[in-house]
Design a protein that fits this description.
alpha/beta; Rossmann fold; 12 helices; 8 strands; globular; binds adenosine-5'-diphosphate; binds magnesium ion
């Protein structure tokens, strides 16, 4: 069964897309079957996975409007080793078109359910807003990965996101939880970043991932070559951190599954 994660944060430019494509590439590298879903009409995660958004025959738009299945619309990125359900500007129109439809926030969930056996991980790159698109992502997911920079206003922004996730959990998707906060673009030489990082640990405890993603120019350069850093320059510090993060995610997913197995064993089922 595929584990589905949204990479979300209402702020733009915090590293959502970088996290999505590099985690996807890191997971693929350690042998996981991965589908990356681009839910942002900007299509950066699509382009950053080596798939030309302008040349897509089918995209996540067609899947949301039920004119194509995930299997039909996803393409394999040979270079990256994972599948891409891409997006382009057409997706911006889906927002309006979905409003008139039934189960408009559960469209992606229904489509992904049909591809459940094909992947170990599904990663969803969300746009920087709480739109119908993001809601489709949150309704589909078992958990949310929140990339954040350790800056002064980071904690404030987090309150809104945490409340949104609580509401979705209460009303639409009881599975949903924050899997973890990922410290990105981290520069340990900056005292403020260290302080905010400590505050995060105090507030959120083990919800903060152990892995930290450093600020690393190779990660920023990679998208212009249409690749995640992990593929573009595997030896870069940032790329190595993302492979480490992939390993941490696999371990966390195993722990997520564990209590249910134990409960079953205990009940003799
Ligand atoms: P979002 O998807 O949240 O808008 P992006 O992933 O596009 O954010 O990142 C915003 C910018 O920061 C991009 O130019 C990206 O290349 C750069 N960036 C992201 N993570 C890092 C990092 N660890 N080191 C250096 N640059 C980064
Ligand atoms: Mg983005």
């Amino acid at each position: 069964m595929a584990k589905i994660f949204c990479v979300a944060n209402q702020k733009g430019g915090v590293g959502k897309t970088t996290t999505t494509v590099n985690l996807a590439a890191g997971l693929a590298k350690i042998g996981q079957r991965v589908l990356m879903v681009d839910l942002d009409p900007q299509g950066n995660a699509t382009m950053g996975s080596g798939v030309d958004k302008r040349a897509l025959e089918l995209s996540v738009y067609d899947v949301l409007l039920e004119s194509a299945s995930v299997k039909e619309a996803a393409v394999l990125s040979d270079k990256c080793g994972y599948w891409v359900l891409g997006a382009n500007r057409e997706l911006a129109g889906a927002e309006v078109e979905l409003v008139a439809l039934e189960q408009r926030d559960k469209r992606l969930k229904a489509a992904l359910a049909q591809a459940d056996g094909d992947f170990d991980f599904v990663l969803i790159d969300c746009p920087p807003s709480l739109s119908m698109l993001t809601l489709n992502g949150l309704c589909s997911a078992h958990g949310v990965i929140v990339p954040m920079q350790c800056e002064y206003f980071a904690l404030e922004g987090l309150t809104d996101l945490v409340n949104t996730i609580k509401q979705v959990h209460a009303n639409l998707n009881a599975d949903l939880q924050i899997i973890g906060l990922l410290r990105v673009m981290f520069d340990p030489r900056i005292t403020l970043q260290q302080q905010v990082s400590e505050q995060l640990k105090d507030h959120f405890g083990d919800k903060v991932f152990d892995t930290m993603i450093p600020r690393n120019v190779r990660l920023a350069e990679a998208p212009s070559y249409g690749l995640p850093g992990v593929v573009f320059d595997p030896s870069a510090k940032g790329s190595q951190a993302f492979v480490e993060f992939a390993q941490e995610m696999v371990a966390r997913v195993q722990r997520m599954g564990a209590p249910k197995v134990q409960a079953k064993l205990a009940s003799g089922a």
